[in-house]
Design brief:
It is a single chain. By secondary structure, the protein is α/β, with parallel strands linked by helices. The chain has three domains: 156 residues, Lambda Exonuclease, Chain A, CATH 3.90.320; 37 residues, no CATH class; 63 residues, Ribosomal Protein L15, Chain: K, domain 2, CATH 3.100.10. The protein is built from nine helices and 17 strands. The strands form five sheets. Strands 2-17-15-11 form a four-stranded mixed sheet. Strands 5-6-9-10 form a four-stranded mixed sheet. It has a four-stranded mixed sheet with strand order 14-13-12-16. Helix 1 runs antiparallel to helix 2, helix 1 packs antiparallel against helix 4 and helix 4 crosses helix 5. The longest helix is centred in the middle third of the chain and has 18 residues. It is globular and about 55 Å long.
């Protein structure tokens, strides 16, 4: 268990960063130390899921909280907190499918488990009430997984925080993940270049294709802060204050890269599936 007399005098870790840490330490380092973030279509789909859930929930049942703890050195926004049988339970909602346990049942992926454990720990601290479990809802297979808040959960959380702090103090990127399947679904693969790293270490390594073949369509970079990318008929329209709208035929655009605080509408997202949002620095 964490010592309640200890305090953290550094910037709090985002709980979502712990999710990245459990998924891949190199991903955590790129995002949290080098400040490189890329949001692809999966990230935007996840954001849309959360918006849809919030709109569809009964206000009496739904409570979204932003929690911060000096004790744990964490900050994050829990998807949902509900009262069940007199107990407070934090919920996480995920687009994908649950993991399969050895006995054949459903279980939470390690990164999802760590995330909901962190929310449960902060909820327990802020309310002063014992939180016995968190829950992860996987929408792809309509499965609810319960994550117990036991001594092992607290120990895993403490270990993850210590590892995150160690990586933040390091000047070297961690190696690429051993499991190359993680790279296929990672939005930062174009920055991380895991296949190139593996090939450099092992000359006979047989690479898998993480990116599509050469695309002759143009890449549209939106650099103006506050600019908005929308759709007008069969064209993408970029609008910004004190500037004439600029239009580009949809069929000629292969990617849209948004830098800084530019925005894109859901209509534009639907017609250009390979959309990346890049925030550097």
């Amino acid at each position: 268990m964490h010592n309640s007399n200890d305090t953290i005098d550094v910037m709090p870790l985002r709980i979502h960063a712990l999710h990245a840490l459990a998924y891949c330490e190199r991903l955590f380092y790129l995002e949290e130390v080098e400040n490189l973030r890329v949001a692809d279509e999966r990230v935007y789909a996840g954001r849309r899921l959360h918006v849809e859930i919030e709109r569809g929930e009964d206000e009496g049942e739904w409570l979204t909280l932003t929690l911060e703890s000096e004790r744990w050195g964490l900050v994050g926004k829990v998807d949902c907190v509900r009262r069940r049988d007199g107990m407070l339970i934090p919920y996480e909602h995920k687009r994908g499918r649950s993991a399969r346990a050895q006995h054949g049942g459903a279980e939470a992926w390690p990164s999802d488990r760590l995330q909901v454990v962190a929310y449960a720990a902060l909820l327990e601290e802020h309310t002063g009430r014992t939180v016995t479990e968190g829950r992860v809802r996987y929408h792809a297979d309509n499965t609810m997984v319960r994550v117990p808040m036991d001594a092992q959960a607290h120990a895993d959380l403490q270990h993850a925080i210590a590892r995150a702090r160690a990586l933040q103090s390091s000047v070297e990127r961690p190696p690429v993940a051993d499991n190359e399947r993680l790279c296929v679904r990672c939005s930062l693969a174009p920055v991380c270049l895991p296949e190139e790293a593996r090939l450099a270490q092992q000359s006979d390594y047989k690479t898998i294709r993480l990116f599509p073949a050469d695309d002759d369509r143009q890449v549209l970079h939106v650099l103006t802060p506050g600019a908005k990318v929308g759709r007008k008929g069969d064209q993408l329209e970029v609008t910004a204050k004190e500037a004439e709208p600029q239009r580009y035929p949809v069929q000629e655009v292969g990617q849209v890269v948004l830098h800084g605080f530019a925005q894109i509408t859901t209509q534009a997202l639907a017609c250009v599936p390979s959309v990346k949002w890049v925030c550097i620095g």
